[in-house]
Amino acid sequence: MKDKHLLENKLIIFLVALIASVLWGSAFPTLKISYAELNLLNDDIWSKVLFAGFRFFGSSILLFIFLIFKKEQINVKLDSLYKVLILGLLQTTLQYFFFYNGLANTSGMKAAILQSSSTFFVVLLAHYIYHNDKINNRKILGLITGFLGIIITNWGSGFNFDFTFVGEGFLLIAGFVASFGTILAKHLTIKINPFLITAIQMLFGSIILIIIGASQVGLFSLRFNTLSITLLLYSSLLSAVAFSLWYSLLKYNKAGEVTIYRFMIPVSGSILSSIFIPDESLSINIFFALIMVAIGIISVNYKKRKKSEIS
To answer: Of the candidates 66, 116, 214, 298, which lies 20 to 30 Å from 263 by C-alpha distance?
Structure first.
């Protein structure tokens, strides 16, 4: 398959992962600005749930339009459909319930780094799920380094530990839920078009979010203006593209080999947050944490090349 060969090329993998990571990174300032435009308070949980539902519903519609335009077959066997729906429950409903509300209670830069925790959770889960992907000394070193970076970013001025369950705690839960979604997605892409998986799981997950949010605050409770509508459309597009690209990489490559590139998410998220969100800047501890998280992820996935591969 032509797509298979392309997505196994190291340069192509890097470029595709870079695009997906920068798109995901841009979500942090996009959502923080959207909250401000919609006048959503930190404790306004259900309005954020509703907004998340609208975002991913839009993403799914964009993907279905793309699939129809490409004349792709849009059907999934029943024995696989329920797994795709479970993926939607994990990857869209649960992950973004915690992510949206956690993001509202912490900074965009800190959220960008904490969200990378899913990478380390994937390594831990893989140890128990796959017999050929056990934790070793190299992975332990990477996990320790990465989590140290996550801890460091939670220290405020004067090294006071700044952690709240509904802020940083929710983001860690989101990362844990996302790790289950990553492993399930890897399994599903073996037989199903990654773009179709993304469309279906987002449609199902978003409908649940909309129903939950609307039951609490009303379907038309959000007061959109031109900027917030534009940001909603952009966030829908970035999710559709980023998840589809990532699932495509998972289809043709080992999860551990492409996970190395996810360090670009907290890097791009923090940089973009410092550019677009007022009162946020790259402090020394944030910068140091970014370096440690990046080193941790690289350590977890790094493999020495055998001499036979070099000669």
So the answer is: 66
